[in-house]
């Protein structure tokens, strides 16, 4: 009688699990796969663009330039309002390279099918690595509804990262350390955090795994540099990654991030547009408390890790707990990052079920479900700001509770005890204090000039995600603004200066660069599927096709512009006056293939000054009609952009100093430079708004490259 009752319970459980699997699969199909199949959506075009650039032989040096990548997107006709590659590794585009022979939407559909194969393979490998049956593996997997949905919908890389980490664990359990290390290195090439497993192996004294993972990572880096070029790797490692670790990739204050970095940004860091009312504006508190938060997670975790002793069950728990801690500490996690959490929860539930801890297993499953679904439910509009903040970070709170469960299971019971004595614990305390002091010092240095930069900030217009290329127009300042619908020339109130004639079209042309003529009219680059063209506003007459980045001479008779071929810029000029016999005036190319021109401007003499890479160096060159370019200024560091003062005696430059773009003034007569900014952030596209005032774009306090406008008063600085 008892056995029949148990058999009935078991059959009921099987039916419930099958029903839940079917429901979750249908929900994923309805909310994830079908919408993903129909549209490109946000992230996949970013990978596709860079992969196609690589496939077609472009230089990848400028893939982190928001405006440049938008121009490429427009020229290739991708139906996507905005693109950007900030925060992504150059390697992360490589899996899409074979798909670039197809259109973007077809490539995404193939990627969806490939990702389904990744998911199925991951599930099968988790089944072979645990005692859980396939049905329960799939049930746990499909309960990650929101991470799976957004991963498919956005065409992300995290299902491939999940597969690689599952493979790494699969090989780890079988003592195939070389293959384990290779999988971790490949996963880290896509998303950096798996590389932290080197510390895991060091602390567990698994030296073969340390050597295998380190060697594989070095090999991947070298091959990547040889294949893609060293410059994009340098830019990512030294310019992008440090800002990513600070949580400053997109919006550092986003409630959707649900991370510790975003929480501390919102609590302690003022930014006039993104976080105008922090709880307590204090960069010093951030510099102290954020490292303490990280130490609070990592110290007890490393305290319960112990050298390998053959206990397979404990090894499983340690691997799962360490991987989950990396996800919990991620400074900029999105929902799709938590696809990898599937492996952590499968390994934990496998141990709990084998130990007959079913109540705790149910609690873990519930926490996992809540973490996975955080963000699906919106608060009512009348909810207070504090309630909104607490609710928005619910994923963080649930994650902390689940992490405590990991620690508790590793601390006591059949899995062993924490060792609070001996040289090992003393060594952990020492390394923790060193890391904590280093992190606090790094944060303080990062914020050292922050308040000074915020004091120079101009009032940001509403709904502007990025503001760059400021120019004076008979007094008022106009600039290129990134809006949710694309790029527009805007004024300080956020109004479009040159409304697009095709605004009623599905995708208006992006206005990516412009020049201001003496009469106040604008020469605007419009970028579309047929290429870029330069028009004169407000009449919108087309001056020249296949042209970008215009510059106009002081008398208005000469137009200079760039044309690109596979990312290499050439400099052209065009007379704006009609020829004497009435024939159309044709553009004239004035630089050869040895110059990769990035920007041009006219001097007071109407000679051209342009910025170009030539013979492996970036420099400023001058040029007069009929003559060869002459080196004007060749610094020891890279130049990003420049602007000539109205009197012609000074040039505002951006230069790469200690891996950050800083504002510099060059005295034309003496050729001496003065560095004006020193903050741990970037300055772009300076412009003179007056004889002693420079307006520039800066990403201080914002996502890297997502700039606002600031002004530097040279007279106040006594220059």
Automatic annotation (TrEMBL):
Highest taxon above the source species: Bacteria
Presence of the UniProt keyword Cell inner membrane in the record: no
Membrane topology: Multi-pass membrane protein
Alphabetical UniProt keywords: Cell membrane, Membrane, Transferase, Transmembrane, Transmembrane helix
Localization per Swiss-Prot or TrEMBL: Cell membrane
GO annotations of cellular component type: plasma membrane
Bilayer-crossing regions: 12-30, 82-104, 110-126, 138-170, 176-202, 209-230, 285-305, 317-332, 360-379, 391-411, 423-441
InterPro entries: 6-blade_b-propeller_TolB-like (IPR011042), GT87 (IPR018584)
Residues in coiled coil: none
GO molecular function: hexosyltransferase activity
Annotated Pfam families: GT87
Protein family: Belongs to the glycosyltransferase 87 family.
Name of the protein: Uncharacterized protein DUF2029
């Amino acid at each position: 009688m008892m056995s029949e009752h148990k058999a009935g319970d078991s059959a009921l459980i099987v039916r419930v699990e099958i029903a839940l699997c079917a429901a979750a699969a249908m929900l994923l199909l309805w909310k994830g796969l079908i919408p993903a199949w129909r549209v490109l959506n946000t992230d996949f075009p970013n990978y596709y663009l860079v992969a196609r650039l690589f496939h077609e032989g472009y230089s990848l040096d400028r893939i982190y330039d928001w405006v440049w990548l938008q121009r490429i997107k427009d020229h290739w006709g991708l139906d996507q309002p905005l693109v950007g590659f900030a925060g992504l590794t150059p390697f992360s585009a490589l899996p899409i390279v074979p798909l670039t022979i197809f259109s973007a939407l077809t490539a995404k559909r193939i990627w969806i099918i490939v990702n389904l194969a990744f998911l199925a393979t991951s599930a099968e490998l988790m089944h072979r690595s645990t005692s859980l049956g396939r049905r329960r593996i799939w049930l746990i997997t499909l309960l990650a509804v929101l991470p799976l949905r957004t991963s498919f919908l956005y065409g992300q890389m995290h299902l491939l990262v999940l597969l690689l980490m599952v493979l790494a664990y699969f090989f780890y359990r079988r003592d195939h350390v070389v293959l384990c290390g290779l999988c971790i290195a490949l996963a880290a090439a896509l998303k950096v955090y798996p590389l932290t497993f080197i510390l895991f192996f060091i602390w567990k004294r698994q030296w073969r795994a340390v050597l295998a993972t380190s060697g594989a990572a070095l090999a991947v880096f070298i091959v990547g540099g040889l294949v893609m070029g060293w410059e994009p790797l340098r830019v990512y490692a030294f310019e992008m990654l440090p800002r990513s670790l600070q949580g400053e990739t997109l919006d550092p204050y986003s409630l959707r991030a649900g991370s510790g970095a975003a929480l501390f940004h919102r609590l302690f860091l003022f930014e006039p547009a993104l976080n105008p009312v922090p709880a307590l504006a204090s960069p010093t508190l951030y510099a102290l408390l954020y490292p303490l938060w990280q130490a609070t997670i990592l110290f007890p975790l490393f305290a319960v890790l112990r050298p390998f002793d053959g206990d397979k069950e404990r090894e499983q728990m340690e691997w799962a707990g360490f991987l989950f801690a990396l996800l919990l500490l991620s400074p900029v996690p999105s929902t799709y990052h938590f696809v990898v959490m599937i492996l952590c929860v499968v390994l934990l539930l496998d141990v709990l079920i084998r130990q007959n801890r079913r109540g705790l297993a149910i609690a873990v499953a519930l926490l996992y479900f809540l973490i996975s679904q955080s963000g699906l439910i919106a608060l009512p509009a009348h909810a207070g700001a504090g309630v909104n903040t607490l609710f928005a970070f619910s994923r963080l709170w649930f994650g902390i509770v689940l992490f405590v469960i990991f620690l508790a299971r590793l601390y006591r019971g059949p899995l062993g005890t924490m060792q609070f004595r001996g040289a090992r614990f003393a060594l952990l305390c020492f390394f923790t204090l060193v890391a904590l002091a280093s992190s606090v010092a790094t944060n303080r240095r990062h914020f050292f000039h922050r308040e000074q930069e915020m004091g120079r900030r101009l009032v940001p217009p509403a709904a502007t995600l990025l503001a760059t290329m400021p120019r004076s127009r008979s007094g008022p300042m106009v600039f290129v603004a990134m809006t949710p619908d694309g790029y527009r020339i805007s004024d300080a109130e956020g109004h479009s200066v040159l409304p697009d004639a095709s605004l009623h079209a599905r995708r208006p042309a992006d206005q990516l660069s412009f020049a201001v003529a003496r009469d106040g009219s604008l020469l605007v680059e419009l970028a579309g599927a047929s290429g870029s063209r330069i028009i004169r506003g407000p009449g919108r007459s087309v001056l020249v096709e296949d042209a970008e980045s215009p510059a106009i001479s002081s008398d208005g008779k000469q137009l200079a512009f760039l044309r690109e071929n596979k990312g290499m810029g050439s400099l052209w000029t065009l007379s704006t006056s009609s020829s004497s016999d009435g024939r159309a005036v044709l553009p004239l190319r004035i630089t050869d293939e040895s110059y990769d021109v990035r920007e041009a401007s006219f001097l007071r003499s109407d000679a051209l000054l342009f910025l170009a890479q030539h013979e492996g160096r970036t420099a400023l060159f001058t040029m007069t009609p009929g003559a060869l370019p002459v080196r004007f200024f060749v610094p020891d560091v890279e130049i990003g952009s420049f602007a000539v003062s109205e009197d012609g005696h000074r040039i505002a430059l951006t230069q790469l100093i200690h891996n950050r773009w800083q504002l510099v003034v060059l005295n034309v007569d003496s050729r001496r430079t003065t560095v004006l900014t020193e903050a741990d952030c970037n300055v772009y596209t300076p412009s003179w708004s007056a004889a002693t005032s420079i307006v520039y774009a800066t990403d201080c306090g914002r996502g890297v490259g997502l700039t606002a406008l600031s002004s530097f008063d040279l007279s106040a600085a006594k220059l």
